[in-house]
Design brief:
This protein is mainly alpha-helical and 146 residues long. The chain is 65% helix and 0% strand. Helix 2 packs antiparallel against helix 3 and helix 2 runs parallel beside helix 4. The radius of gyration is 23 Å and the shape is extended.
Amino acid sequence: MTKFAKSLMADGVGMNYHEHGDMNMMGMHSSFYWGKDAIILFSGWPNKSLGMYILAVFGVFLLAVIIELLSASLAAIRTERNPMVAGFRLAVVHGFRMGLAYLVMLSLMSFNLGILIAALVGHAVGFFIFKAGSLALQVNEEESYE
């Protein structure tokens, strides 16, 4: 061990895997649970308030629907005549969609079942609204040509 590393350990800077410092582990779950007492995306939010928890559940639902909307919009962007403009627009929409998907993923890491159900239902509703209709039209068009 180097002299620098020894001095850091002596100052208490080294990592102790059994202590969590100032982190309050009381609100952190490692298995799925029901309840409004969740920490979603930000420390102290929704702050054990039922109204804020409902807002968080609705927010995750809405994020999932928007992700499906952005996924469906990729097909419309591909019809752009200029390939450079289409590529740029696809990259911007993809980056934004992935950012929202990561926010949903981080919300799910709260292990709250209400948040999980909101994300799943949001993705299903978004798929039904924005993609299922166009898929059904494609199937009907293929059948009409036969």
